[in-house]
Amino acid sequence: MFQQVRRCGMQLMKPWLIKTQLRRICREMLQAARHTEKWMMWWMKLDQKRKHLRWICEATDEEETYQQQYPVPSSFSMWDKAIAKTGVSLNPELRLVRVEEQGKVNFSDKKDLSIDDLPGQNQSIIGSYKQDKSIADVAGPTQSIFGSSKQHRSIVAFPKQNQSIVSVTEQKQSIVGFRSQDLSAVSLPKQNVPIVGTSREGQTKQVPVVDRQDALYVNGLEAKEGDHTSEKTDEDVLHVKFNVDNVLRKHQADRTQAVETITWKKVDEEHLYMTEHQIGAAEGQMVVNEDELSITEIGMGRGDKIQHVLSEEELSWSEDEVQLIEDDGQYEVDETSVSVNVEQDIQGSPQDVVDPQALKVMLQELAEKNYSMRNKLFVFPEVVKADSVIDLYFNRDLTALANEPDVVIKGAFNGWKWRLFTERLHKSDLGGVWWSCKLYIPKEAYRLDFVFFNGRTVYENNGNNDFCIGIEGTMNEDLFEDFLVKEKQRELEKLAMEEAERRTQTEEQRRSKEARAADEAVRAQAKAEIEIKNKKLQSMLSLARTCVDNLWYIEASTDTSGDTIRLYYNRNSRPLAHSTEIWMHGGYNNWSDGLSIVESFVKCNDRDGDWWYADVIPPEKALVLDWVFADGPAGNARNYDNNARQDFHAILPNNNVTEEGFWVQEEQNIYTRLLQERREKEETMKRKAERSANIKAEMKAKTMRRFLLSQKHIVYTEPLEIRAGTTVDVLYNPSNTVLNGKPEVWFRCSFNLWMHPSGALPPQKMVKSGDGPLLKATVNVPPDAYMMDFVFSEWEEDGIYDNRNGMDYHIPVSDSIETENYMRIIHIAVEMAPVAKVGGLGDVVTSLSRAVQDLGHTVEVILPKYDCLNQSSVKDLHLYQSFSWGGTEIKVWVGRVEDLTVYFLEPQNGMFGVGCVYGRNDDRRFGFFCHSALEFILQNEFSPHIIHCHDWSSAPVAWLYKEHYSQSRMASTRVVFTIHNLEFGAHYIGKAMTYCDKATTVSPTYSRDVAGHGAIAPHREKFYGILNGIDPDIWDPYTDNFIPVPYTCENVVEGKRAAKRALQQKFGLQQTDVPIVGIITRLTAQKGIHLIKHAIHRTLESNGQVVLLGSAPDHRIQGDFCRLADALHGVYHGRVKLVLTYDEPLSHLIYAGSDFIIVPSIFEPCGLTQLVAMRYGSIPIVRKTGGLYDTVFDVDNDKDRARSLGLEPNGFSFDGADSNGVDYALNRAIGAWFDARDWFHSLCKRVMEQDWSWNRPALDYIELYHAARKF
Which ranges form a coiled coil (predicted)? Predict the structure, then answer.
């Protein structure tokens, strides 16, 4: 380059070539920055010989030389993000011209913002970076002409903010982009380097600074008058000319001379800051705004001691002498089109800036160095920075891939947590052993993890330790964890939005389909009604006349308009012969609109006989006129002439209505009416559904709160409801646990069912909380926690544990960014409501499954396909598959029952084609069913987390699984067994208890009652009592179609009053205001038959009414109750009704219409009757046993017990199994109804507000399932 400068200095200057030569020299000077002293010397010589300079190089030669000297960097192949981040080198034949406004460069063609047809919008001239984007394809505000994006960046190429016209980066990087961080083009001391600039307010001042060594002065000039045009903008942009003459002259100026309006700013040792320059030029000249101020950025080395003074005027090029214009073509670039991060350009693509030959030498040296050290790999740049592109070189010969034809890198960032990628390596030009690829390092990275492999099974993973490279950037491990949390939250929000959109579309499609089906149904109904009407009208037309001799006739009226007819009537010898008034009560078309015409008759004196007439205006669509004669208007008539009960019918004269047109119009009218009725009905149902959903949601929230408070005598939290990302206090009362009296209590906690990525928290010694027995521990709940899990122990390391009898303590956490890992649960049962229901087992299978499914888990049911199956309750039933097992083919059908997926197994041996559920060699049939169900699960690879079997009938599942399937693909499955009634199949139940993982029965009290049973006692440690619930959709007085008036707890009195009247009317009971006691039961010994009979008599003696609904499987008991019914109906007629059958729709009316429901069972595992009664606002009267004791709290005796569970008393109960106990409870109940009616009504409201649905039991079962999976 220096030889070229010397040659140019000897020649006569050609002004028209100044532009190209100066441009070339400036760029070459930048490349020669390491030879700064020579550069400065030749600049001085160039100034001395200014008058003799002539440019002898032709423009075209110069451009060719420039292209040879600065070839366009070659493109490289890398994964998509790296490509997106790589700067694009532009063709050097760029034509830079005038700028019209701040931050904008104008070019001739606005449509093509790129000079060299680069893809994408908002492209730059030079092609550097803005943050992580190439200038060639990234938009950004207020960008530099030459591609510098940050504030106070050098036009030529330095990245840091607030940099000087002559400055060095904080890392002291070289302009030419060498990897070493302390290479510089100009070596200057760092201390107290004065620098030039204008303040943000545009003010200037002169502050002389003397360097401790050789100082460098950089003078910032305000534009002189006549040399610039100032435009006042938001940033006070100043436009300035660049004058080559001034540049050369000022090189020889006194270095200490202060130039007018110079601003100095002191820079400390660590950073070079440049105040905001705002420079401008008249139209046609270059503009540099505050984001682009630095004109030339030259690095400063440590050892050089060159003093130099450059003013901004020196760095200006006169537009008269040098214009960066090669022709008259002009282009316009929007200010947002050029945004560069030069540091990223230098760091990310060093080949684009460094001389290719120098780069090659440097890389060769690195390769030789790493090869000699037997390093398997190295990267360039050696310091890897975030948001950049690096070259990775891999020595294949030193690894397991030495003989493999393909080398692929597989990696990710930040401990394999971020952006997994693969990229194929290619042979590099550094030698046969080195393979390379380019990788983009994202800005979120602080560490690069990777391995190499051959694309198949051969790996090089650094001795099982993987390869790892640290990355410099703003991210670290803690910040990245926070970033991941936020990223996960955004992902969840996106997924939630997508799922909501999918559901919305599905719902819209469903509604559209239903609307079309409903419309077709309405049209079909309209056609059907038209057909019926047509037949009736045709029959009527056959009877219609225009007159009947000497009785009546019709003629067109001559006194009125043409639409009026006159009807004549001769009352002589007719029923109205002696009436003083004659009236017509009429209609049309076989009374299609009922009574619609009423006219009075007047005496006709001009005809023989007793004739009367009336003028009548028939409706336009009338084909036939229908009427009777009466002695008064409608409502006041007593005597009628109705043609011997056939009415009178006349064909209207001069009728312009065609029969065909009439029926078309009539069908449209009917269709419109039916459509309106349907819409009104749908709107009513929608409102009811919304209110019902709100009621259920409120009840569910109350239940959750009660669930959190249910252990308050042992443990609770403050706040009660835990939110992710917050701090919570856990308060524990050891005096009510196995840790009572222990000197220390340690708290052990984790999250997400002990599966949180960070593991269990360190044990925490609990401290006293206040003066009571409570101990406290404080926990920081992570943002991705959805469940908090904990136990307590007496020592830090071990000792006695309070783990809630093996269940652990679990509290749900709301607002988590993580979602629970939901389970797959399969129920294997022989009953399911409503398709195969015999007793309460079928209700539990359906209701429990729905409740758990509502919590997000996948729940399915496997059921035998009985020939007596109620298939009308199965939606979309179809053949799923067939498989062979047990010597027969088994067809599998699938359908939806109550929104649950149900598989029906149908063995072709006819085993379930016996016409009933029970009673036909049940042991053999159900054993075969259980085994075939497990085989079906295995063959279909369902791999459920839980298999739930019920009662003796599906108990074989427990041992068949352990014996045949526990070592199969179903090895992780756990078996849960529920006992509904221990009275049946105790042998099978005992065997299932041995093999199951967890077992339950249907209430806590019943679990204690049967704990000593031989089938239970050996396995008490895995036996729990969980209450059953009721289905709130089936038993809902607000949406119940079997009661006359829907009601909630808000209008329970009015609703039950209407239901009572309907019940009394249906059974012929006296319509009196007395209490009604309802009894809905199976008539078996278990249900307390003798107590039921006594309760009936006692209620009748107390002036109440009784309604009983039920039947007995034992024909002797059934006959006994038939005789009792006959006797009672005779003696207490109108006060008692016994309906000895099962009728579920009728049971709804009895629940709603009764004031009390009595359940005097001798034993009751759970009982649903009392729960349904409370749902309908009826007060339960029960015997204290099993689930009855767990759900009914006596208003006089159980206040404390109820409130300890977060409830209020809700009924009447009694001990014993004799009549005295029944009398004790029944007398108090009926007495309260008569004597304290307001209190009784409040009690009805209270019991309706209590939640006895599956909301709480479902939570308990979920905890049980999780506890089973722990084993």
Answer: 664-698
